[in-house]
Amino acid sequence: MPKALVVSDEVDERLWTDAVRTVSVDLVIGAGDLPYDYLAFLASALDVPCVFVPGNHDPDLSGYTRYGGLSMKDGFPAAWPGPAGGINADAQLVDVAGLRFAGLGGSIRYNDGPNQWTQRQQARRARGLVRRARLRRWRDGRDVDVLLTHSPPLDLGDRADPPHRGFACLHRTIEVLRPKWLLHGHIHPHGEPVPDRVVGTTRIRNVVGHRIMEF
């Protein structure tokens, strides 16, 4: 069973030291709104891959392509602002450490910041992700293990204030993809316990801060 260090939204200074090397995991999973240097450090110190989606406070990563070690934007070499060596799963299907991830980063649109989407825009992105997952399943017979998002589904762990409303389209995405897990950040518990929620065969978990998880 793959084992992961799952992080989101809140930096744990204890992990941003060499002490993290005592943690034994197979990968790092980031659910958004963390310094990209932090993600890169964790992956490098642990010598494991890092898969992530951007949050609404993260830099815009759209428009970048990567070929080998070279990053390009608009046809020209450009420094990628994401975490060194990180795998951006936003609106993508990626296989990492034996797990299949489907990713949808960002939050509901509430100002002009990056990585923000209206309900309609995120629904369009979700439909594209579902098409890719179905095609991949047809090719190799494998289902999605983890739906990795920054925001939660609407009315499942979100908040009533506009910046923290969840996405309605995630309900349909869960229904079609039937991932074992939906991992999200964005909603800070502020010390309160946050129980997992279960929809069908999918377990929804708020991973703000850090957790060690076995899949």
List keywords for this structure.
alpha/beta; single chain; five-stranded mixed beta sheet; Purple Acid Phosphatase, chain A, domain 2; 16 strands; globular; 215 residues
Structure characterization notes:
This is Metallophosphoesterase. The protein is α/β, with parallel strands linked by helices and 215 residues long. The protein has one domain (3-214): Metallo-dependent phosphatases (Purple Acid Phosphatase, chain A, domain 2), CATH 3.60.21.10. The chain contains three helices and 16 strands. It has a six-stranded mixed sheet, with helices on one face. Strands 7-3-2-1-16 form a five-stranded mixed sheet, with helices on one face. The radius of gyration is 16 Å and the shape is globular. The relative contact order is 0.19. The model has no long low-confidence stretch (mean pLDDT 95).
Stretches with pLDDT under 50, minimum 5 residues? none
What's the level 1 CATH class?
Alpha Beta
The side-by-side strand order for the widest beta sheet comes to 8-9-12-13-15-14
Percent helix = 10-25%
The gross shape turns out to be globular
Mean pLDDT: 95
Total E-strand runs: 16
CATH homology group: Metallo-dependent phosphatases
Question: Mind telling me which CATH architecture this is?
Answer: 4-Layer Sandwich
Oligomer: single chain
What is the structural class? alpha/beta
Helix tally equals 3
The name CATH uses for the topology is Purple Acid Phosphatase, chain A, domain 2
- Taken in chain order, the helices and strands follow as EEHEEEEEEEEEHEHEEEE
Protein name: Metallophosphoesterase
InterPro entries: Calcineurin-like_PHP (IPR004843), Metallo-depent_PP-like (IPR029052), UPF0046_metallophosphoest (IPR051693)
Organism: Amycolatopsis rifamycinica
Domain Calcineurin-like phosphoesterase: 18-189
